[in-house]
Amino acid sequence: MVYNEPVMLPLWARHYGREFGAENLFCLDHGSDDGSTAGVVANTIRLPRGEFHEAKRAAAISAFHTSLLSYYDAVVFSDSDEFLVADPARHAGLAPFIAARCQRTVTAFGFNVLPVIARDPPMDWHRPVLAQRRFACFDRKYCKTLISRVPLNWTPGFHNCDVPPNRDRDLYMFHLKFADDATFRTAQEKRMSVRWAAESVAKNHGGHWRRDAAVVSRRAFLRADPAHAPPLDDPRLVEREFAPTPEKRPPGGLYTIPERFRNALPGIRPGADEPGPAPQAGVSPAA
Fold it and tell me: What is the pLDDT along the chain (287 residues), one digit of tens a residue?
């Protein structure tokens, strides 16, 4: 579900179209007026803009997700800056990964992809994304249950739903909100202009949307290479990041993105350094 997403939506469409086939992608256009959704996703449904009500958005997407399960074996939901990747060392893509899982739901391990401000150049969104960034910060909030064979009811923000998490160490979710400073600042200006419903403001839904971009960027981005950053497939990650009690849990740690993920997220346009996964049979998911 998007509103004026000229960068992330075409990136989302390329990634998930490569994984599942463009004909199986669905976009709920929440009143875009900049032309950014025109012709990007074939199955696009226009919704009236109005006030932004996060609880109603969660209910609408949950209901649409349920309706798609009448026609598909499994359904994937993600925001336009959330990119699910099955470990390329073990899976040929998301479709064969889902086909191999008989569980009702699958929960990803979530990471915020980050630039090192002093060293990394601005993101070139036409090139493979993870080839341009080395580090990601683990974020428990983005360990979302986004793949399901059964109806789900998500809470506002989509960080939780009405089934327990079923985390799978072969599934990663790369959140690109902070992957590029200039792109983040432009998007945050748009978010701060959103007219929110009073109920959503009272419950602090989307509170991070209403924070000054400069303040957020000072806290989010890396100023220098971290002194130590284990690979994101480190077998000790679960022990380190999921302490048994909340008061013992550390803030999300920094991890290195392994080389095998370099071409996992394609750029907006195809390139020679971007081999796509081979077509797979056996499951018909919808994204």
Answer: 999 999 999 999 999 999 999 999 999 999 999 999 999 998 999 999 888 778 888 999 999 999 999 999 999 999 999 999 999 999 999 999 999 998 999 999 999 999 998 889 999 999 999 999 999 999 999 999 999 999 999 988 788 899 999 999 999 999 999 999 999 888 888 876 766 667 766 766 555 555 666 656 666 778 788 888 999 999 888 888 886 665 555 567 899 999 999 999 999 976 545 554 443 434 455 55
| CB-CB contact of 282 with 96 (8 Å) | yes
145 vs 14: CA distance, rounded Å: 22
Spatial distance between the Cα atoms of 197 and 206, rounded to a whole number of angstroms: 11
CA atoms within 13 A on the CB side of 61: 26
Q: Distance (Å, rounded) from C-alpha 225 to C-alpha 191?
A: 29
| DSSP at 66 | H
Question: Could you give the C-alpha distances from 192 to 101, 187, 188, 236, in angstroms and in order?
Answer: 40, 9, 6, 38
Give how far Cα 112 sits from Cα of 120, 218, 253, Å.
16, 15, 11
| CB 108, CB 172: distance < 8 Å | yes
Tokens of 25: 């992608």
Token reading at 84: 């699910």
Which DSSP letter does residue 161 get? B
Neighbouring CB atoms inside 10 A of 186's CB total 13
> What's the pTM?
0.87
